Amino acid sequence: MPTSRITDTFAKASGESRAVLVSYLMAGDPDLETSFAAMCALRDNGADIIELGAPFTDPMADGASIQKAGLRALAHKTTLADTLALAARFREDDKTTPVIIMGYANPVFRMGFAKFAEAAHEAGVDGTILVDLPPEEDGELRDAYAPYDLSVIRLATPTTHEARMQKVAEGASGFLYFVAVTGVTGAGSADPQAIAGNIEMAKRVSGLPVCVGFGVKTGDQAAEMAKIADGVVVGSAFVDHAEKAHESGEFADAPRGMGALAKELSEAIRTVAKQ
After folding, report:
1. Where is the secretion signal located (predicted)?
2. Which of 145, 170, 217, 247 is the most buried (most CB within 10 A)?
3. Is 169:206 a contact under the CB 8 Å cutoff?
């Protein structure tokens, strides 16, 4: 079942005394064929979980890199259905790497929660992160996901106090995505020690693995975050390779660059022995 794929991934990493690497890319950037090659390159170079971005016209949580990635994908007319088809293609040969769709509520709502849940299940998707759908408003989504054991992955931030964390954790599954900075994706970098207490609280209240993202770009940063979290999420740094490939017209450079970065990040994380 989908959620168990996520659970198994964290269990495997825990058995190896390390954090997981969660890698993000935008579907259709610079094109769908390159996105598929990039997914494989990420997986082959140490990414434990892949977040597959679904392009949307108003990505309010994202910084410049991912905003531009979404616009490039939309210029190629990449749809939510295309994103699911990309996940399904990846799942044909890879039965174990969790794939998370990350995006915004509007395209899913427009498709219909029940229809999307069925399509995501058929595509081998493990869950979603819909960043603009708060716990108070995702009951219908959770009901649609339940028959397929799809994970509703929620976000928390440094300003999420304990009472609010209890609400965030209610009905969440898979893992909790902790936003390391009070800003958009790719903005600045967080001080791990400043958020260590928040992450401990998030683990205690949710009972879920906690992954840290936003602003993590280098192996050194990933290693520092791996000391305090169950997983490290990197997005904008991968997307930047797609932008360079788009600008040069050498699309094959995108999966090569992403793979090299995934290897750097994975190796850095594995140098940190978790207690």
Report:
1. none
2. 145
3. yes
